[in-house]
Amino acid sequence: MASVTLSDVRKAYGQVNVIHGINLEVQSGEFLVLVGPSGCGKSTLLRMIAGLEEITDGTIAIGDRIVNDLPASQRNLSMVFQSYALYPHMSVRKNLAFGLVNLRMPRAEIDRRVAEAARILRIEELMDRKPRQLSGGQKQRVAIGRAIVREPQLFLFDEPLSNLDAELRVQMRVELANLYNRLGTTMIYVTHDQVEAMTMATRIVVLNKGHIEQVGTPYELYNFPANLFVATFIGSPKMNMLRARAGSGRAEIEGLGSLPLPAGVSADGPVSIGVRPEQVALDGTGDLTVEGVVSLVEYLGSEVFLHVRLGSGETILVQAPGQSQHRMHDPITLGLRSAQAHYFDAEGLRLGPGAPPDVRIGFGDMGGKAARRGGLMTKM
Amino acid sequence: MSEATLTAPAPTTAEIARAYREAKARRAKRSAILKHIFLILCSFIMVYPLIWMLASSFKPDNQIFGDLGLWPREFDWQNYWQGWNAMPVSFTTFFWNSTVVTVLSVIGNVISCSFAAYAFARLEFTGKTIWFALMMMTLMIPYHVVLIPQYLLFLNLGWVDSYLPLIVPRFLAGDAFFIFLMIQFFRQLPRELDEAAMIDGCSPFKIYWAIIMPLSLPAMATAAIFSFIWTWEDFLGPLVYLNDMKDYTVPLALRSFISQDGVSQYGPMFAMSILSILPIVLFFVVFQRLIIRGIAMSGLK
Question: Which helix (H) or strand (E) holds A23?
């Protein structure tokens, strides 16, 4: 297990800056997920930690060792690639053993580790097959096996589940989480799938255009987004955003009415008010009542998403229970509660209090510990 | 509505479908037969010189050009015995010489060109694009243009009258065609394999040796086959650099059958020509399996 420290890490391809000075502290034993839209630099960042990509400026340290100029093989880490990158001409057994053979490890130790990995990942009966004879899920297991036989101090995952079908992805997600709980090794995981990020992470780093937007536990990011980008990026379906003008303790939402600002939020001028679909009250109770018409009903079984066109012409998304009987073109009265909404200033920064220390905890074992040791938010 | 359709029972859908299927099968068969006749005819035209040579190798000299029939009246192996020992030096020596030159050239070409190709496809070095452009430019220069400067170079090195001018350049990645062929092949191997190997502790050479090379057998086999054929049947190179008959390769020796002043020995020449083709056929049969196996091995995802 090792911590990873990034200080002012930059990356430029010629004149184009893709990573603009990132500071990040990955704690030992943490499952850190890098998430962001495509092109945000998350894979580049991971590859820089792996040593597959040169860094233009700054330092990367694994444990106490600065690894800027250390080749990938000497950083004591393993990486699982999106395409699995299994060696097609080698059997599963040889794929697993290849890295260990290169380390000139004694034969007996190699055999022990390979057998152990095969047992953990339940691929014992596949050991003599070639990668082309494996299904997607099996290839994924072998790729993870190749990572764990090295018993590294750091695991890197580059969108490992994105080539799997939906069902297998859910299954492998659980297996990965179990593997993490079992090994307790530091893991850095890149994904664009926020469900993966939310379910597995101890902490999530939200990246956008080569900047860190926010670092925090899944709970923190969902409930206390630091800015507009995080607020709309985390959560599916997206948070509703309403434009408003604040003044003297109230926010006047265009064409809808005014909402009292909760304690701790003081603003003057234009603000954005974010309301998650599940936080809109369907019974019309709340600090502000708005009238609308259901313009679309999306039935998902356990829940229903209603697209509601408000009097102001805007459409907001509302989550209703699965049994609700709303139909298209039905008039509906919605309630907004001022305490449950999120407020952002004209620059898109969060107004009001951040997460209290006691909610900065993850749900996993290590997560709890890691976060309580002081997993503070790191901002650019 | 005519009476016939009223009296005769209307065909069922299944019958219509069957009739359609049968008509389609008949059409397919007819076009297949036509295609085959055409192709067999074309291949016969192409193989005819070879067949003619094979037939002639069994005929005595006076029958080769005098007899119109292709099939020899009697099979006469005399040309083979005669041809083998027709020169002051026996064909055993010529075949051995050709084998040495060809085998070393093939090994040299495959190793050196794949090295160069790996560097161009995967490594970063200063002036890569310029070197690549220069390499590609050599593809456009005909061999005959560089023949004289090359001859002078080897003359100054004192290598003329030896096999060195034929073999050493092969170990120096001199054939841009093979380099380009391999670069194209290496480029389509996923880079993530290299990266996985890098993390698994491979040096660039080890990546080449343990990952790229085994996965590139089809390209290697193609290069080996072409290299074998071109070197084995190369006439100009040996003609320029070899003077002593005991150093001759097979094509040079075959030329010696044609005499400038007296009577040419066509029968023995054809017999030896037939023998000279055999190694190429054998080599091709052995190595083309690698190409097929390589194709079966791809399918990385």
Answer: strand A16-26
Give the one of B195, B202, B297 whose C-beta lies nearest to A89's C-beta.
B297
The residue of B200, B208, B220, B290 whose CB has the most chain A CBs within 10 angstroms, and thus the best one to mutate to test that interface, is B200
Report the residue from A71, A89, A99 with minimal CB separation from B215. Answer: A89
Q: What's chain B's Rg over C-alpha atoms?
A: 28
The token pair that represents B244 in the structure block? 């002593």
Query: Which of the four pLDDT bands, split at 50, 70 and 90, describes residue A56?
Result: very high
A13-38: b (≥16 Cβ within 10 Å) or e? eeeebbbbbbebbbbbbbbbbbbbee
- The ipTM of this complex is 0.81
Q: What would the pLDDT profile of A2-30 be if each residue is shown by its tens digit?
A: 899 999 999 999 889 999 999 999 999 99
- Cross-chain Cβ contact A98/B210 below 8 Å: yes
Give the whole-angstrom CA distance, residue A8 versus residue A211: 11
Touching check for A135 and chain B: CB below 8 Å?
Answer: no
Residue count (chain B): 301
Q: Which residue matches tokens 């004879």?
A: A133
Cross-chain CB nearest to B202 (options A79, A86, A102): A102
State which amino acid sits at residue A151: E
CA dist list (Å): A239 to A208, A223, A340, A358, B120:
18, 11, 12, 24, 50
CA distance A16 to A12: 5
B182: closest CA of chain A, how far (Å): 18
| Mean local confidence (pLDDT), B11-23 | 90
- The answer to whether the beta carbons of residues A158 and A45 sit under 8 Å apart is no
List phi, psi (to 5°) of A259.
-120, 130
